[in-house]
Amino acid sequence: MTIQPRAGILDIRPYKPGAAEAPGIAEPVKLSSNENALGCSAKAADAFRASSDQLHIYPDGGATKLREAIAREEGLEAENIVCGCGSDELLQLLGKAYLNPGDKVVQSQYGFLVYRLVAMQSGAELVSAPETNYTTDVDALIETAGDDAKIVFLANPNNPTGTFISDAEIRRLRDALPPSTLLVLDSAYAEFVRDANYSAGIELARERDDVVVTRTFSKIHGLAAVRLGWAYGHANIIDVLHRVRGPFNVNLPAIEAGTAAIADRAFMQRSIDHNEEWVAWLRQQIGGLGLEVTPSVCNFVLVHFPAEGEKTAAAADAYLISKGLIVRAVQPYGLPHSLRITVGKEAENRAVVEALREFMAS
């Protein structure tokens, strides 16, 4: 008899990352994974290379050097930080630690796909709260969570919509949830947000024992390949995460690269400036083609196409691929008529707009 996994495991559809290949094109432009258009900090790359003579040595299991660097740069307490193999791992560890079969997990309507994976891996039920104008609706989240949600996952700003809600709204949400509900604030794109009403949630997590914030090195720091993230929260939550993580869940090159990256504020600022210029340009240019573009504070834009006819999202995607331009179809998020386009280098941004111009005119 074939050995069977736990009930529900085979119902999970593995996460599918953004495509990287275009048939027949040797060097396509990848704008499908929200990677940093400027690459990574040269200091981080140097630190990564310098670690190569220590590959035979186990890393520090607590990633102490990295946690202290994060604490120093972010004004936090190192003991309230835990690092992981990307923020994805930290989200999964939270599910592993706090969810039981049958528990209710809540997300906003167009929440990050990993939240569903986390729920299903634990046998929990994921329920989505409707959004308003592709933006989290706090009242809907509160109603959906009720008094029995075990975890509420909230990406702020959100992927794939690029929208956010204010610190005041986050606090209103937390105040309305029961103390037995853990609020997980996924702030992967926090560094890109310039709005004064925004907060990544760090202060709220410092004040309360029922909030945890996750962050990543994949976006602003351009270290997607090394898989590195961190979480900040109350000592009780951090203690639990340390108990369920692997003993060496962050590798040595990642620790070294991350330590250098978090201190390179000049590279971060260049990334922010580049994004601020080109995300606005993409929205203006694509909107000028007659397409709806959701206002975004992230390093991508969500573009909406007609549901019927010759100018659908699927047709646009195929046309862009034929030109060697790879963007992200977001049908798995419940957005079959939209495409998500990452901010690239200047030439890449201009190329994708020109290709969309040709597509709309054809």
Highlighted features:
362 residues; alpha/beta; Aspartate Aminotransferase, domain 1; Aspartate Aminotransferase, domain 2; seven-stranded mixed β-sheet; four-stranded antiparallel β-sheet
Description:
- This protein has 362 residues and is α/β, with parallel strands linked by helices.
- It has two domains: 16-39 and 266-361, Alpha-Beta Complex (Aspartate Aminotransferase, domain 1); 42-263, Type I PLP-dependent aspartate aminotransferase-like (Major domain) (Aspartate Aminotransferase, domain 2).
- Helices cover 38% and strands 15% of the residues.
- Strand 9 (292-294) and strand 10 (300-304) form a beta hairpin.
- The longest helix is centred in the C-terminal third of the chain and has 23 residues, at 265-287.
- It starts with 28 loop residues before the first strand and ends with a helix.
Strand order of the largest sheet: 2-8-7-6-5-3-4
| Number of helical regions | 12
- Choose one word for the global shape: globular
Q: State the name of the first-level CATH class of the largest domain.
A: Alpha Beta
Topology:
Elements: E1 29-30, H1 42-50, H2 64-74, E2 81-84, H3 86-98, E3 104-108, H4 113-121, E4 125-129, H5 138-145, E5 149-155, H6 167-176, E6 182-186, H7 202-207, E7 211-216, E8 229-233, H8 235-244, H9 252-263, H10 265-287, E9 292-294, E10 300-304, H11 313-322, E11 325-326, E12 328-329, E13 338-342, H12 346-361
Parallel strand pairs: 1-11, 3-4, 3-5, 5-6, 6-7
Antiparallel strand pairs: 2-8, 7-8, 9-10, 10-13, 12-13
